[in-house]
Amino acid sequence: MAEKQETILITGASGFLATHVVDYFLRGGYHVRGTVRSAAVAEKVKETFPQYAAQLDLAIIGDVAQPGAFDAVVKDVDGVIHTAAPFQVFGVKDNERDLLKPAIEGTLNILNAVHALAPKVKRVVLTSSFAAMADHSKGRWPGHVYSEQDWNPTPYEAAAAKDAHAAIAYSTAKSLAERAAWDFVKQNNPTFTISTIMPPMIYGPNINATADLAKLNTSSMDIYRLMSPQSKSSDPVPENMFWSFVDVRDVAQAHLSAYQTAEAANQRFFICKGNFTYQQFVNVLRASFPEIRDRVPVGNPDADRIPDDVYTVDTSKSQKVLGLSYRSLEETVCDAARSLLKLEAGKA
């Protein structure tokens, strides 16, 4: 619990992950000032946390990349959790405009605002990504062990190119935004420290009132496509494009722990349970939810092991410094499915 009711600014407070981050800080006794993009979304966020009405305020910021976007909301806060950043790889028309600039400029905007206007802040926690670590040119990178030592090497120019795939631009945006944060600290020597949180694919339950089956976040849709009324048991099981995962609640706990733990200052943290296959996902869904088994692909239930030529991960730092104990794949998938079925029932 918070020693006193500190006020924590949490940007992008309506997001899939950010809603859990807000939840963990509220339950920890903090007052949360969240940012959202519209008044309508603010009302939905309030609906998510009716029991914490006295601890939660919402501010509207339409564009986090606009200079001075955070100037008003950082005043009088004790800490900052910056989760707001574009997460899209579909429908992107301009990599630089839609992905690179918003991620980098949004990060620098929050740091500049804190540096200039929020003297009480001692810790800023930034949501980065495994994308900031991954070297896509290596593919599955047999034998490699990913850790906090890794950086995505793709340069800005390559990601901004008109023929660059949006997925590469997204990954590079995360990497360059994080690098910009570390450069800011080095160049400005601020009175606050930063910690960066780097999760891979984030699965788990939706708890936000903004959740909508028609507009699910990317990772929730990744599971729902395996169990939606439009799928069937004879469908093929998707092939993995990404191999590592983590539960959304563990990522939220990582943000809280990084804020509270002195040893986390100026550190990167790879937040990851381990590797997975979609065959493992459908096996869990079919075993745990017999009522929807006819719409969950069967695939080859015995072929669920992770290939030997896929990289592995080292998350010992997050366990040692942040005290994390990761949820199992089964718990993550089942709780995600339950929340999706609840949403489905509500829309029926």
UniProtKB/TrEMBL annotation:
Xref: Pfam families: Epimerase
Cross-referenced InterPro entries: Epimerase_deHydtase, KR_dom, NAD(P)-bd_dom_sf, NAD(P)_dehydrat-like
Gene3D superfamilies reported for this sequence: NAD(P)-binding Rossmann-like Domain
GO molecular function: oxidoreductase activity, acting on the CH-OH group of donors, NAD or NADP as acceptor
Keywords linked to the UniProt accession: Oxidoreductase
Highest taxon above the source species: Eukaryota
SUPFAM superfamilies from the UniProt entry: NAD(P)-binding Rossmann-fold domains (SSF51735)
Secretion signal, residue range per the UniProt entry: none
Domain Ketoreductase as annotated: residue spans: 6-158
Family: Belongs to the NAD(P)-dependent epimerase/dehydratase family. Dihydroflavonol-4-reductase subfamily.
Stated name of the protein: Ketoreductase domain-containing protein
Phylogenetic lineage: Eukaryota, Fungi, Dikarya, Ascomycota, Pezizomycotina
